[in-house]
Automatic annotation (TrEMBL), chain A:
The keyword Cytoplasm does not apply. It is found in: Cell membrane. It comes from the Bacteria. It is a multi-pass membrane protein. Belongs to the binding-protein-dependent transport system permease family. This is Carbohydrate ABC transporter membrane protein 2 (CUT1 family). GO terms for biological process: transmembrane transport. The keyword Transmembrane helix applies. PANTHER family: INNER MEMBRANE ABC TRANSPORTER PERMEASE PROTEIN YCJP, MALTOSE TRANSPORT SYSTEM PERMEASE-RELATED. InterPro entries: BP-dep_ABC_trans_perm, MetI-like, MetI-like_sf. PROSITE patterns: ABC_TM1 (PS50928).
Automatic annotation (TrEMBL), chain B:
Belongs to the binding-protein-dependent transport system permease family. Keywords: Cell membrane, Membrane, Transmembrane, Transmembrane helix, Transport. It is a multi-pass membrane protein. It is found in: Cell membrane. GO terms for biological process: transmembrane transport. SUPFAM superfamilies: MetI-like. PANTHER family: BLL4140 PROTEIN (PTHR43227), DIACETYLCHITOBIOSE UPTAKE SYSTEM PERMEASE PROTEIN DASB (PTHR43227:SF8). The keyword Membrane applies. This is Carbohydrate ABC transporter membrane protein 1 (CUT1 family). It comes from the Bacteria.
């Protein structure tokens, strides 16, 4: 694409002005590339380094100065991971907790979002704002009495404590995301169902929910990622053998005499994969949800 | 069965969610604020009412240094990614080739789990084998020195959050009508002039919200700081989140932890109130 191709229809009318603008456009495009280059280096070099370390043999990784371009590649760190039974246990915990959190979040937030979207009643607006604000309370403070509460009810250490907490913390965003989606389901469809004799429950389950399926999947993925990534609650509320990968990795690798950095980078890579996959799908929902249809496509 | 009114049906739908909010957020929050007035241990049962003693202790002790650290971290870790994210959004919006692919690529630091972010930068900052020291030819302990630890933590958090800023601000830029810029340049406004007179006013709403949200999140951020430094060295990176957590779960002192937490909450509530007002105005 050439620079002259960008100015639009008005260009023909203002030819002299456009000619004067050309160096301006070139300059801002050069500036754009410089910005992308500098910030890109900052943004992507660490990820490059994670990958390089994960595939570098120990004796090379622990040499100084490190070579920026790998000279030797190995899979030994991934083999080490696969052989580590404790890590496998953490992985199972992560999968169980995140999956159940995702399903529970979708169910609870869909009902709530539907109530917010399709009915008008006293207290609705204030409640919506409260839901939005609730994600901003300091979790380190909540954790103290949650610990006591779960301890008193005998739930401390079990999956339940984690799942209930994570589900609650995903609700604000899931509810807002799904409310936006239910808002786009025309009320006339529901009225039609009601005229055909469907109860409100049937209308909800057989009309509104199927039409919102992609949104439900997005909300579920978001909740899954939230549970998968959490550190502080999993660290504090779960027994050592019930902990998920983030605190599990800290226990396994940090605080030792010498951290096995390449193994840890390999583990980090593996832990990040499901999240990256989920976000590739989620990207447009998150942006779209927060900017409310302002972006095309 | 008697048919429910619409309002009753709506409340029934909200019941599970409200129950969770009550049990996991509202009750613990109120209970924590009450605990601030008691002397109570995490490991021993029973408690003793001590009035404002915990608050007095905290205000005379931890509060000021912790508040200072929290503000330094919050301002640094909000302004830096905001500037980087804004610059990147402007660059990607300037119509350069492959900006869609680049946007996806730049999301990675934000997408990967927070603990992984911490591991990665621990390794980069490592005094003996770290790549940063490798490039500089030094063996400096970035996270172990009270003078640089906070800076290192801010760099790490900046890295993890600038992509979110970029995405949100880019979305805002893309809603800006092209005609505005064209009209301004016909009137003879240069790039810089157009940025201040066209782009900035158009972006005020979204920029304000992302800045405020990031500020609120950083004000209570825990993961990165805790894994990178644990609040050290010599308390140089001890923010509210770390101080409250450590007082409760390492010192087992619930009274002082929740008193400090109560003061922290108060400051946060002010921020949240500002956010909600902003949000309302924006919705209108």
């Amino acid at each position: 694409m050439t620079v002259t191709a960008t100015p639009s229809r008005t260009a023909a009318l203002v030819r002299p002005v456009r000619t004067r603008r050309r160096p301006d456009v070139v300059r801002s495009r050069v500036a754009a590339w410089v910005a992308v280059g500098v910030i890109g280096l900052f943004g992507l070099a660490p990820i490059y380094w994670l990958l390089v370390t994960a595939f570098t043999p120990d004796e090379k990784a622990f040499s100084f100065p490190p070579s920026l371009i790998p000279t030797e590649i190995t899979l030994e760190h991934f083999v080490n991971l696969a052989k580590n039974e404790k890590l496998f246990g953490y992985l199972v915990n992560s999968v169980v907790v995140s999956l159940i959190t995702a399903v529970l979040s979708v169910i609870v937030s869909a009902y709530m979002a539907y109530a917010f979207s399709k009915f008008r009643y006293r207290g609705r607006t204030s409640l919506m704002h409260l839901v939005l604000a609730s994600q901003m309370f300091p979790q380190a403070l909540l954790l103290i009495t949650l610990y006591a509460l779960f301890s008193a009810t005998g739930l401390l250490g079990a999956y339940t404590a984690l799942i209930l907490s994570f589900t609650t913390f995903t609700l604000p965003l899931c509810v807002w995301m799904l409310k936006g989606i239910f808002d786009t389901v025309p009320s006339s469809l529901m009225e039609a169902a009601a005229i055909d004799g469907a109860s409100r429950w049937r209308t909800l389950h057989q009309v509104a929910l199927p039409l919102s399926a992609p949104g439900l999947v997005a909300a579920g993925l978001f909740a899954f990622v939230r549970a998968w990534n959490d550190f502080i609650f999993a660290l504090t509320l779960a027994d050592p053998e019930r902990q998920t990968l983030p605190p599990g990795l800290v226990h396994t690798y940090l605080g030792e005499f010498q951290t096995a950095w390449p193994d840890l980078m390999a583990a980090s890579f593996v832990v990040s994969l499901p999240v990256i996959a989920a976000f590739m799908f989620l990207q447009r929902y998150l942006v779209g949800g927060l900017t409310a249809g302002a972006v095309k496509g | 069965m008697r048919r429910l009114s619409d309002a009753q049906f709506a409340w029934l739908l909200m019941l599970p969610g409200l129950a969770l909010f009550g049990a996991i957020i509202a009750y613990p929050l109120v209970s924590a604020l009450v605990t601030g007035f008691f002397e109570q241990s995490l490991v021993r049962p029973g408690r003793l009412f001590v009035g404002l003693a915990n608050f007095a202790d905290v205000l005379g002790g931890d509060f000021l240094p912790v508040f200072r650290n929290t503000m330094i971290f919050t301002v640094g870790a909000t302004v830096a990614p905001f500037v980087l994210g804004y610059a990147l959004a402007l660059a990607l919006n300037a119509g350069i080739r492959g900006s869609g692919v680049l946007r996806g690529l730049f999301l990675f630091p934000w997408v990967i789990p927070g603990v992984v972010v911490s591991f990665l930068w621990l390794w980069i900052f490592n005094a003996n084998y770290g790549v940063l020291n490798g490039i500089l030819g030094t063996h400096f302990s970035w996270l172990g020195d009270p003078d640089t630890a906070m800076l290192a933590v801010i760099v790490t958090k900046t890295w993890a959050s600038f992509p979110w800023m970029m995405v949100m601000l880019l979305a805002g830029l893309q809603t800006m009508p092209k005609e505005l810029h064209e009209a301004a340049s016909v009137d003879g406004a240069g790039t810089i002039r157009r940025f201040w007179s066209v782009t900035v006013p158009h972006m005020k709403g979204i920029a304000g919200i992302v800045f405020l949200l990031e500020f609120i999140w950083n004000f209570q951020h825990f993961d990165t700081i805790y894994v990178l430094t644990g609040g050290g060295p010599a308390g140089a990176t001890k923010t509210f989140a770390v101080a409250v957590y450590d007082t409760a779960f390492k010192g087992f002192d619930l009274g002082h932890a929740t008193a400090l937490g109560g003061l922290w909450m108060l400051l946060l509530l002010i921020l949240v109130a500002v956010y909600l007002r902003h949000e309302k105005e924006d919705v209108r």
